[in-house]
Specification:
With about 200 residues, the protein is of the alpha/beta class. It has helices at about 15-20, 25-30, 40-60, 65-70, and strands at about 75, 80-85, 105, 110, 125, 130, 150, 155, 170-175, 175-180, 195. Strands 1-2-4-6-8-10 form a 6-stranded mixed sheet. Strands 3-5-7-9-11 form a 5-stranded parallel sheet. The protein is globular and about 40 Å long.
Length: about 200
Amino acid sequence: MVMRVFFFKQKTAYEMLRSLVGSEMCIRDRHRGDWDGDGRRDQAHSNSAAEDVIRDIAALNLGNCSAESLRAGLKFNEDGSLGSWDLSAQGLEELPESFGNVQVREHLDLSHNRLQGLPASFGNLKVNGHLFVSCNRLESLPDSFGNLRIGGDLNLYDNQLQSLPPTFGSLQVGGFLSLFDNQLETLPASFGNLQVSSDVN
């Protein structure tokens, strides 16, 4: 596999969001086998974990963020499992440690918040679609970040990242990886081991 690495902005955020729509179905079907065969058990775990996170975030009392607004972004599949969760533009400044327990079959959107860091449990997340952590204030990523397995695209653009953890090269991304508009001057030695199905920009 030939990996091309770019650190200039190739597309606007709006262009990228529009380009995702056509690929949602194939990404979801391709990774369907990654989930627990017992749909009811998986559904119960996913829904319970989401409620735990909502409770923990609400307890942080961050700005105008409320339990109602957090629940409003939850989208469930026909079988009741958590399909996607839109937490964008909620004014979030931090995430609770329980966040890593969430399982999302499709997309998780944390973009356009005020996150300066991510909990150590973040690497335990299960996201079979796209993960958006773009347009925040992240200066660093937890060591567990390399444990992430993302079925779609991983968007980290427009943050304040000055470095990447040594484990970053263990990432597995089913789509493309966006790192532009950060403050990266060097890359970890493991960067060449990245498993990315498309480009890195």
